[in-house]
Amino acid sequence: MIDKGFPCSKAKGLEEASAGMTCFGYRLVPREEKGRLVQRHFDRVASRYDFMNTLLSFGLHHLWKRRAVMSAGIQPGFRVLDACGGTGDLSLLAVKALQGTGQVVLYDINRSMMNVGRRKLQRRCRGVRVSFLQGDVQSVSLREESVDAVLVGFGVRNVTDMERGFREFHRVLRPGGRLMCLEFSRPTASWFGWLYDLYSFTLMPLAGQLFVGSRQAYTYLPESIRLFPSPERLAELLREIGFVRVTFQRLTNGIAVIHLGTKAQPE
Ligand SMILES: C[S@@+](CC[C@H](N)C(=O)[O-])C[C@H]1O[C@@H](n2cnc3c(N)ncnc32)[C@H](O)[C@@H]1O
Q: Ligand 1 pocket, 229 CB below 6 A?
């Protein structure tokens, strides 16, 4: 089911893509092309993004996001970065956790996604300041050690150089600050994995065709999930970058995973 003969479906993750090339779903593309394809993808889905998330996850994404933001240890007064913040679900939960004092910076490369987020947050936020910054997480335009917590939900999968993004999150975090990364992964039970493959390679693209007018947009989603590193490998990468107390928790048989890491305090 997974192997459709494209080069990326044969690679065991992005590390195996050829030099100068990377994976956009199962397509092997020049590295500089991936950013453009990701932009086009989110331009296409932005207006229906929230609806499709709720439909395709049967509403579960709300529970995962709530659990994820609760585990990030946000305290009133914190400055929180919602990286790859998109339509702002994690920002909204961070605003609630801040209890009226502090700041949220929603940082995203795609204007259409942020515009949906801006409308949603304007309607529902009181007290806490929310700023919208358009930019690439591979080079975050914030000062070193200027935020207390970094949240990234379903975002890093789309970033050409994910490691560079994580290094940036480490740079902008203050010592003792926490990173929370919520991402899709593979189910742990094989029977569930089989059903999940069937669902994601048949019904997901069909729903994309029906509701967004693009089958391809919702083929990219399951393909990019299959290529994402395992939770163990991602935890290892976070430790290599310098995060300490790295843990992960699987949700719904491993379909989604929360990773936590802390920036070490100086000795
Ligand atoms: C799947 S959406 C997730 C949105 C939101 N965090 C959520 O949980 O619903 C991924 C977001 O990552 C953004 N993104 C992708 N590559 C990015 C990059 N290099 N820098 C910043 N944002 C990026 C996209 O524009 C999109 O809004």
A: no
Q: What residue segments make up the domains of the chain, in order of their start?
A: 57-185+228-263
117 Cβ below 6 A of ligand 1: no
Whole-number Å distance between alpha carbons of 249 and 265: 24
Residue where the block lists tokens 């994995």: 193
Does residue 158's CB lie within 6 angstroms of at least one atom of ligand 1? yes
Residue 237 CA to residue 73 CA, distance in Å, equals: 22
Q: Is residue 154 lining ligand 1, measured as CB closer than 6 Å?
A: yes
C-alpha of residue 156 to centroid of ligand 1, in Å: 7
The residue-averaged pLDDT of 187-195 equals: 95
Averaged pLDDT score across all residues of the chain: 92
If you measure from the C-alpha of residue 150 to the centroid of ligand 1, how many angstroms do you get, rounded to a whole number? 14
Residue 3 pLDDT: 42
The set of residues, in sequence order, having a beta carbon less than 8 Å from that of 60 and lying 6+ positions away, is 252, 255, 256
Cα dist. 206→54, 59, 154, 212 in Å? 16, 18, 21, 10
Ligand 1: which of 34, 158, 162, 181 to mutate, most ligand atoms within 8 Å of CB?
158
Burial class (CB in 10 A: 0-12, 13-18, 19+), 153: buried
Assign domain 57-185+228-263 to its CATH superfamily. Answer: Vaccinia Virus protein VP39 (3.40.50.150)
Give the residue, by CA position, lying nearest to ligand 1 atom 10: 155
